[in-house]
């Protein structure tokens, strides 16, 4: 229960990695704020379940991470923000010459600019509290590239750059900023890429997973949302006090290739 009394705000956390991170931070004792752009009963129920399961305060706050003012309002409405996990993200796969401009704008806004806005709003809150952790969920695609993912790769490389600047601007304070770079994790974001890939290559689901998705992941296994949550708990712990401005790959060896 190392994080008892801390509040963690996790963007894009009603699904996938964000939800897994929220659960692991709550398991470590943190109060959590869940977020997405919807405002459904099941969103609030997720927070309620986490609160009950781990004995922490858990809330769900609707905010659209494609809009700068809503990103900032999320931090304001959260009240406190000791740990900020910038996780919200979307994907679109197409060649540059066919990439819809609106998709480019949405990916840059949600996957990159949202982290600028939430961080800008959270740093004064962390400074006032005298402690803080900013954890950006980048990607192996923040360090390497793949064809047909121009907006995603550009945004994730941007997240790694923003991480370094945030770390330098807070270097003399008890605040750290790091990026986690996951390889493939089997979440709805990745599930959505499977049918198109099956059709494109004329492969069945298992073959797509083995020969396309995990082709660059030497472990031949997906990373799990629990493993990513555990990495966040580590980065929020005192063992990570001097870890700042860097990337931690959770990618089964992808970026060692
Ligand atoms: P996911 O689709 O399961 O979750 C994405 C989350 O972001 C959801 O909660 C969704 O509601 C939220 N979101 C989307 N648009 C939003 C908006 N406008 N405002 C607020 N919330 C919004 O996907 P995931 O795989 O869990 O991805 C989470 C993060 O991890 C993303 O940043 C993604 O790029 C990154 N990532 C994922 C993988 C992977 O293999 N799944 C690998 C590397 C990095």
TrEMBL record:
GO terms for molecular function: 3-hydroxybutyrate dehydrogenase activity. One of its GO terms (biological process) is monocarboxylic acid metabolic process. Belongs to the short-chain dehydrogenases/reductases (SDR) family. InterPro entries: 3-OHbutyrate_DH, NAD(P)-bd_dom_sf, Sc_DH/Rdtase_CS, SDR, SDR_fam. NCBIfam families: PHB_DH (TIGR01963), PRK12429.1 (NF009093). This is 3-hydroxybutyrate dehydrogenase.
